[in-house]
Amino acid sequence: MVSRVIPVDPFDLVIFGGTGDLARRKILPGLFRRYCAGQMPPEARVIGAARAEMDDAAYREMIGEAIAEFGDGKAVDQDKLSAFLETLSYVAIDARGETGWRALAGHMRRKVVRAFYFSVAPGLFGDLAERLNAHGLTDDDSRIVVEKPFGRDLASARQLNQDLAAFFDERQIYRIDHYLGKETVQNLMAVRFGNMLFEPLWNSQFVDHIQITVAETVGVGGRGDYYDKSGAMRDMVQNHLMQLLCLIAMEPPARFDPDAVRDEKLKVIRALEPVQPHHIVRGQYSADPDDPESLPDYRTAVENPKSRTESFIALKTHIANWRWAATPFYLRTGKRMVARSSEISIVFKDTPHSIFGEEAGRHRNVLSIRLQPNEGIKLSVTIKEPGPGGMRLIDVPLDMTFADALGPDGAENVDAYERLIMDVIRGNQTLFMRGDEVEAAWAWTDPIIEGWTNRGDVPKPYDSHSAGPDAAAQLMRRDNRDWREVTP
Ligand code: BG6
């Protein structure tokens, strides 16, 4: 069997914000897993850079603890951990001043891939880019990785793009949307473009509607300050749900290469129609009546009693092109919902004529692609209910839960960040957003947000552990459709 792990070239990866939440929760535990898997070569070096003063030993200790806390729950191999920690060093740096830059330069080696991960507030992206350049830390092949939020509207995203473009080519800029690193999200492309079965039906003629749900059970947690300035539209729809929609709706690219894929996604975003006010439902979660203290309502959680920011949004949109013009796309995402569940459902049309008569009821094929948890794909097929009693029809799933189909190894879930960081080192931008894509996504998002701000719209309360406000269900019911149940 061909090895599934292909080691990447030796690299120097500098993580600005190296002591931050993302670095400790995701980036470094992810790198450790790639190290254990043999994908990160032992000659690779990771340099944490942040404001705090500390030495290498203290940084290694901090990251060792983070790996124990945020790793995958399996017992940590202590020998491997010590060897991995040896690859780490630390530089105290001032992103806007001069401190630390010479020391950082002293850590960089020649002839290895250089990558700089900006795991910091977007306000610092421009400063970091400028200083990297001023101190001669980058070459033509160096890469920078930037996190979301990439701007909060079109103007700020444009500005960020310009700030980075002053020092880096687009081919050097890796804008992360971690949803693109999820296993099943990539599988969407495999299912669509690796099978003959679906593509002929993948259009308005056969698809009644498409729904995309990303439901979370967590609330805003300790991120109230950030979240209340963003809301679900900026935090989830403009990026993650938009990317899912693109992969579902795009035309087949000529090749599976970065620009061919991103060109097709961009066309989808540019073809999105403006969203009508009555096709939007926003919500804010209320306190859990059973446990009001441990689960505060949204406004308490963000410490803003008058907040009008949404922790839930449902909307209906259309794509103005030949393939999709007559097929609505319903998007829904929220915090503190009844279950953690991300699912895309392609709901096919009724058969043109039922030979079984009215009493057989309405049956539709649904292809549901489950992103998390329990990744898998199900196709519901209508069959005869077994046994006597006439021709009664039922829907049963053709089920391909990856864990069942591929066994424990096949279903081994490489975290999105692990995959994406390895892609940066390999120099593959397919799963990263291009600057024009991000701008197009904001160009669609901005008028929607402006619209509700100008109307003085107040989000509707919804119960924690629910499927969102009733109005969201109505949005579908008005069209004689229903949301799929949010199940764990
Ligand atoms: C992040 C959002 O980008 O994605 C968070 O900022 C959200 O608010 C998270 O919770 C969801 O990611 P995942 O991978 O848990 O679905």
From TrEMBL:
The UniProt keywords, alphabetically, are: Carbohydrate metabolism, Glucose metabolism, NADP, Oxidoreductase
Checking InterPro entries in the record gives: G6P_DH (IPR001282), G6P_DH_AS (IPR019796), G6P_DH_C (IPR022675), G6P_DH_NAD-bd (IPR022674), NAD(P)-bd_dom_sf (IPR036291)
Gene3D superfamilies annotated for this entry? Dihydrodipicolinate Reductase, domain 2, NAD(P)-binding Rossmann-like Domain
For the keyword Oxidoreductase, the answer is yes
Please give the catalytic activity noted in the UniProt record: D-glucose 6-phosphate + NADP(+) = 6-phospho-D-glucono-1,5-lactone + NADPH + H(+)
Positions of NADP(+) binding: 17-24, 51, 148
**Protein EC:** 1.1.1.49
**Pathway(s):** Carbohydrate degradation; pentose phosphate pathway; D-ribulose 5-phosphate from D-glucose 6-phosphate (oxidative stage): step 1/3
Q: What class of enzyme is it?
A: oxidoreductase
Record domain Glucose-6-phosphate dehydrogenase C-terminal: where: 189-484
Occurrences of domain Glucose-6-phosphate dehydrogenase NAD-binding (ranges): 14-187
Query: For binding substrate, which residues are annotated in this chain's numbering?
Result: 178, 182, 216, 235, 335
Q: Which family does it belong to?
A: Belongs to the glucose-6-phosphate dehydrogenase family.
| Function description | Catalyzes the oxidation of glucose 6-phosphate to 6-phosphogluconolactone.
Protein name per the record? Glucose-6-phosphate 1-dehydrogenase
Q: Which organism is it from?
A: Roseobacter sinensis
Q: Which gene encodes it?
A: zwf
